[in-house]
Design brief:
By secondary structure, the protein is α+β, with helices and mostly antiparallel strands. It contains twelve helices and six strands.
Length: 383
Amino acid sequence: MINLFNVYLTNFIKVSESLNKTEESYYESFRQFLSFFFPENKGYSIQVNTTDSWTHNIKISYLDRPDFIILKRKIPILRIEAKIPDDNIEKNLKANSNDRLHEQIYRYRGREGNTQPVAITDFKILWVIDKDQINEIGKDPKIHKKITIINEDNTLNKNLEQELVDAFDYLTNDAIISITKLQNLIEPLAEYTKYLHDEIYNITSNENVEDDDLKIKLNLKSLSEDLKNTIFRDREIEDTDQFADFFSQTIIYTAFLGWIRFCLQGNKSELFEISLLPEYLPGESFIHKIFLNLKSILSNRLYDDVILAIEGLFCGTNFNLLVKNIDVLLSTFYSDFLNLYDAKKAKNLGVIFTPTEIVDYMVHGVDQILIKFFNRPDGIISP
């Protein structure tokens, strides 16, 4: 690793002496430097603002996201904003500085009330932002630690490796624990979803069913008709497999999001019940109707074998170990669940979690187009 650090130092000095250097001139050597701490063979990847897979290597430095994003199993766990060496980082970070750095860090930490891990570098120093400070607009971010990478005399910090290991552990451990713990929940949920799908498919596709299943078949047929008249009114439900797929996934996704809302309101995870979900759903909606009547829609056998088993999984999961980063929680569940439930479908549909920065950019772009070209002064919120 000493050789890698020396290579970084050599490249840093070479770029610094160049008359045509820009901030981006330092990017590639810093990416290689980071790869020592976040190696590919341990499931990490490093995306750089201007040359990453999201944009097919097209330069997009205007995109609203930081210069480096560290991912674990394709889930963002750390964002690093870079500035030109010797920029006045600590001054520019303050709310009253009128510098864009303060607003950038506010966005990258997840905006109001969030605590996504963020660091800043000028390629000589790494500033670790306090991950436990609640993000608030207009409030100065706390610096948890300032780590010198390259000294003023162009030598390496002698304690560099250990200091950076400690800093990156501080920044990413919560997210990595969340990903690991959530995997223990996702795997059995995917199995129960497959089982529910197969049961629903067999009941709805077979003409000859037992009395208990006949009631389910009639209830599900009624739901299928409701779907055609509401959510799928502009396109056909192709077959019973598609309906079984929609129904079983709806149960899992809604239960997951309802469990999150239940726990975020300060309730203990072990007190969660599927029967409480209608309280967290829009009244009169199709999904509200499903969960309001779920026990009567399904037989006692299916309700006990699947619904109560799912409820037990949520009750037995320590929510506080997962909730350190809601973005990681949602993106991990969304990305991993469908791949475990039906990897072929995930691939064919191109299902992938869309990072916050991409969504922000898309919304901002549409907003500006409406204002500029369609005479909508209020932009995206215009009636």
